[in-house]
Every structure is written in C-alpha cells, then in structure tokens.
Amino acid sequence: EPAGRPLAKPPVRKLAKDLGVDLAAIAPGSGPDGVITREDVQAAASGAPEEGPAASPAPTPAAPEAPTLHAVGGEKPVPGFRGRTPGEVETVKGIRKRIVEKMELSRRDIPEATCSSDADLTELWELRQVLTEQARAQGFDVKITPFVLIMRAAIIGLRRFPTLNARFHRDDDGARIELLEHINLGFAADTDAGLMVPNIKDAHTKSTLQLALELGELAGQARDGSIGPAALTGGTFTVNNYGAFGNDDGDPIINHPEGAILGVGAIRERPWVVDGELAVRRVARFTLAFDHRICDGGEAGRFVTYVSEMCEQPGKLLLHV
Predict the structure, then answer these.
(1) Residue 182 contacts by C-beta under 8 Å, 6 or more apart in sequence?
(2) What 3-state DSSP class applies to 139?
(3) Nearest CA to 168 among 290, 293, 299, 298?
(4) Which residues carry out catalysis?
(5) Which residues, in sequence order, are bridge partners of residue 116?
(6) Among residues 12, 5, 56, 3, which one has the least CA distance to residue 31?
(7) Phi, psi angle pair for 261, to nearest 5°
(8) What is the DSSP string of 162-231?
C-alpha cells in the first residue's frame, strides 16, 4: 500500500465505499499488521465500537427512510438493488401493500386470457426521431419515444374495438358490461417506492405531442413522490413498457377493474422477411391480457393485429390524429 494509505483489501474498500465509511477514520484495523477487515467496516457503518485498534468508527451519513427491515441472521451482505439485502424481511405496508391487494384482486376476480403479435417497428423507430426534432424546433422540451407512438396506436385501436376499453360489473340485478366513452390511458411506472400506474385522462382527445408531454410529467411525479391520487385512479386501459428493462416478452396483469392491458417488449434488431428477402429490422412483441368475460379471443386478437399494423406503417396514425 502507498505510504499513509489505510491497509485494506479491494473487496473491503468497495464495501466501505458502498456503506459510506471513511477507511482513514478507522485505521489501523483489527487484522494482522493493522489491516482493516470487513468486520471493522461493518462495525463502523452500524455505529458500534469494535474491540481492538478500530475502536472509534466514523459516524455514518444520515440515510433516507426505508421500509421496516428485520435481519434474519448471519453476516449482513452488501445491500443490493434499491438497498434490499438477502436475508432480510420487509413489512408489507404502504404502496407495497396496495400493490399486493391489486394483484391478488386481479388474479382472483378476472378470468384472464392473452394473445400476442410481433411487429416490425423500423419505420416507427425512425419517425420518433423526426417528431422529436420537430417538437424541439418548435420550443417543446420533449422526447417523442416509440412508446408514445404505440400509446397513440392503442388509443385508435380502443376506438375500433371498444370492448377492450370496458368494465365488468356484477350486482343484485345481475351482470353487465359497460363500454366506456372516455379513455384514461394508464402506463406502468417503475419507481423507488414500487410500481405505480398513473393514467392520462381523456387521452383520446390529446395529440401525440400532448401525450408525450403528459407522459413525461406524470412519470416524473411518480418517481419523485409528488404525484396525487387523482392521477393514479380512474384508468380504463393500461400499456406496460417492460421492454424498457430489456425484456422481450412478459405476462402483464390487468390493472383491476380495467378490462385489458397491453405489454410492449424490447425493440431489438432481428432477422425479418421483407418482400421475400431476409433483412435486419427493429422488432418488438405486443402481448395483450384481457378479461374473457368482456371480450372474446377473436376481438382481442384483431385488436393486437390492428395496433401492430399501425405501428408497422405509422403513416396510418395520421388518419386518426
């Protein structure tokens, strides 16, 4: 080690960096020749004094509030994604409790079926760049993503196949299916607090530019915790972009009491047949989960095909904007 640098092995240095511990403040360590050990770093991070040379651990920085956690035993590993550590137990409360309730209700109450279609999104991929440049040239600080254009196609598809934008009701007078006039288009937002599904109210009345602006605003509010309850309730149909995480396919769960959800996989370069010739194209898979009480497979399958075809030839979207 260079003169004056605390003695510690690379894994211990990484642990200290992850836990916010200053090695110089706890040197020399309790190991041979004053080497700082994992136990020294962990003791410093927890604020507990350690026997031996490292008896005065550095104070740890204040940590943000987190779910109630209980150690199950053994040496505590380095925290993983979003601070979760193997061997710990998290109390189900707050947003996580609400997610659990919604998922259980959906799986328990809705007889769900799925269908899917692969789509060549090469033209749509190119169009989103042109639209982004045009929007910014007009002074709008916005990015028109492929997901926004897919949302536009979904809205058009819901007007042609209204049973996908519907709700099932059962009461003392019997069962009924309500085809909804308005489209409050939800989207799954991954946040540090958990899954949230904001929705764009009356999305069928808004332009593609307005959809992009509101999508960015609601996603930002969901991530920073400033989103209000009104934006998280009243959705009629949801689009889930799990492709943003690199997933090619998924099994989306309907956001109860909605009647369907469209999942969008990653847009990847793949071999694709164009006019009888093999070419490299940008392809993604659309997967629709739907309430089979409201909609039959024939209508659901036609909806997915219709949305796919509009995304493959995005010029068709102009007919409905």
Answers:
(1) 201, 202, 204, 236
(2) coil
(3) 293
(4) 292, 296
(5) 287
(6) 12
(7) -145, 140
(8) GGGSEEEEEETTEEEEEE-SS--EEE-EEETTEEE--EETTGGGS-HHHHHHHHHHHHHHHHHT---GGG
pLDDT value, residue 243: 94
Q: Which tokens go with 93?
A: 């409360």
Looking at residue 314, the DSSP 8-state letter turns out to be: G
Instruction: Give per-residue pLDDT as tens, 257-315.
Output: 999 999 999 999 999 999 999 999 999 999 999 999 999 999 999 999 999 999 999 98
Residue for token pair 């053994």: 74
Go through the chain and tell me how many residues it has: 321
User: Tens of pLDDT along 121-156?
Assistant: 999 999 999 999 999 999 999 999 999 999 999 999
Pick from 164, 120, 160: nearest CA to 279? 120
Which pTM does this prediction carry?
0.73
- Which positions ≥6 away from 183 have C-beta within 8 Å? 155, 158, 159, 165, 202, 203, 204, 236, 237
